[in-house]
Amino acid sequence: MAIEMRLLGRTGVxxxxxxxxxxxxxxxxxxxxxxxxxDRAIESGVNFIDTANVYSRGRSETIxxxxxxxxxxxxxxxxxxxxxxxxxxxxPNNRGASxxxxxxxxxxxxxxxxxxxxxxxxxHRPRSDTAIDETLRALDDLIHxxxxxxxxxxxxxxxxxxESLWASEKHGLNRxxxxxxxxxxxxxxxxxxxxPMAQTYGVxxxxxxxxxxxxxxxxxxxxxxxxEGTRYANMNPMQRRRFNERIxxxxxxxxxxxxxxxxxxxxxxxxxxxxxxxxxxxxxGPRTLSQLDDNLQAADVVxxxxxxxxxxxxxxxxxxxxxxxxxxxxxxxxxx
Length: 336
What we know:
Layout: E1 5-7, E2 14-16, E3 19-21, H1 31-43, E4 48-50, H2 59-71, E5 78-83, H3 99-113, E6 118-123, H4 132-144, E7 148-154, H5 158-171, E8 176-180, H6 194-201, E9 204-205, H7 237-242, H8 245-261, H9 265-274, E10 283-284, H10 289-296, H11 305-314
Parallel strand pairs: 3-4, 3-10, 4-5, 5-6, 6-7, 7-8, 8-9
Antiparallel strand pairs: 1-2
Helix pairs in contact: 1-2, 1-10, 2-3, 3-4, 8-9, 8-11
């Protein structure tokens, strides 16, 4: 299996070109099955694992920490987690990007992950009501304390990320080194501004939902109800916006291209994402061991210039048929 290492932005840290996302652990995947998935991923060459405190309200972090304790591989893993989401339905301060919440959230994540340090600590979403320098100062303190190695963002707009770089420069604070963004063959809008910005400033890009939440696995067909047990079988409002007729124009256009490659649609879509300029490591979110094995084989799929051109005919660069990218622009933004 052709798992390769890529630099995490300008840090010098090397991460696998597939990142194991842990969102399913504790939600749809039981702990023992999760341990097996984590072990298999590491054995296959994956050294990058991403979770978040809000995933199953801490269960994902707990399971991930226990798995790394059991296999003794913590030191060789680049372990990433995130803060921002609500961890308490009643306390309005147990969420967000304030110093108060960040310090408390980090301490809680360290305990759940059973580790002394977090390799990559990320803000899960931009926060328009919190000054970016407050967020950066708290994260900078955690770095100086040795509790966090690097910091990053998720679903920031290009201007929001550049604003953070300006604030870091002005105040002498550690800067964000990476951005997680939704990026897949149904939503390519980040190619317009975010990806050029990232390449300009040496920012690692770690796409989430490279399989469009499962829409690009080949299991969904026009005119048919989503199969029972799949993510779209009981759609929430956000999923309904994504599950529309236009996606099938793209899916049906891509299926013959995947067949020519001799690979399933899932591997085709993931390999395409991995091969895009500036992409560091797409995040996969397997629910089962078989899904992990399928995703890992995408590392063996090679794209040619002709393949890229054929894809662009089906879904042009920068275009979207299902909405995934949504940064928080908010009604206001405190300036520095």
